[in-house]
């Protein structure tokens, strides 16, 4: 399963992932595709699980 990395800007993504357009989904793209900001889905119970994604935190990238 592909993980979806939700970041506000490509620069927020861990090194290496920011250059991969198949992994990176910026907040702007996310809003355009799904119609809601990423934070709305992060707050929804099971929201990210529905997309097979995981919330991105700087600690998770280490």
TrEMBL record:
Superkingdom of the source species: Bacteria
Protein name: Uncharacterized protein
């Amino acid at each position: 399963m592909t993980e979806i990395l939700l970041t506000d800007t490509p620069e927020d993504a861990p090194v290496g992932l920011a250059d991969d357009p198949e992994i990176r989904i910026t907040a702007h793209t996310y809003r355009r595709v799904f119609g809601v900001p990423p934070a709305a889905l992060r707050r929804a119970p099971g929201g990210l699980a529905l997309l097979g994604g995981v919330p991105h935190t700087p600690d998770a990238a280490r």
